[in-house]
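Deliverable D4.2, example record:
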Amino acid sequence: MNKIFLLLALWFAAFFPALAQQPQLPTVQLVAGMHAIRAEVADNMEGRMQGLMYRKAMAQNSGMVFVFDENAAHCMWMKNTLIPLSVAFIDETGVITNIADMQPQSEQSHCASRPARYALEMNKGWFAQRGVTPGAKLGGLEKLAPR
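Output generated by the structure prediction step:
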C-alpha cells in the first residue's frame, strides 16, 4: 500500500509539477523610494533555481529577491514561470543597474548590464508604474547575505 501511494505521489509530481509544493522562503521588507516591497528571499541554489515557477499570481507589492553568491553579470529567464514579470538587476551597493520585462514561459535570457549581486522580480510593469528606474537605490538589502 505504501509503495502504491509513493508511486502515485511521484507520478503526480512528474506530470503535474504545478501541484508540487514550493518551499516556504523567508521574506524581507525592501523599499524603492516611497514604495514598500514584501520580497521572498531566494538566497541559495535551490531557491534561485525554483524562483517563481508555476505560480499563477503574485500580490501587487510582492516580489522575489535573488541573492547571488558573487557580484557578476547574472541572467534570468522565465522557464515554467506563468506570470509576466519585470526584473531589476541591483549592484552590491543597492543601486539598480537595469530593468527588463520578461514574458511568461520564455527561455530568453535577460542579463545584468554590469555586475549585480541581486535581482528583484516584481509583476510586469511594477517599476515603470512607480517611476523606479536604473540608478535608484533600494533599501533593505543590507539585511541580506548570501549563504
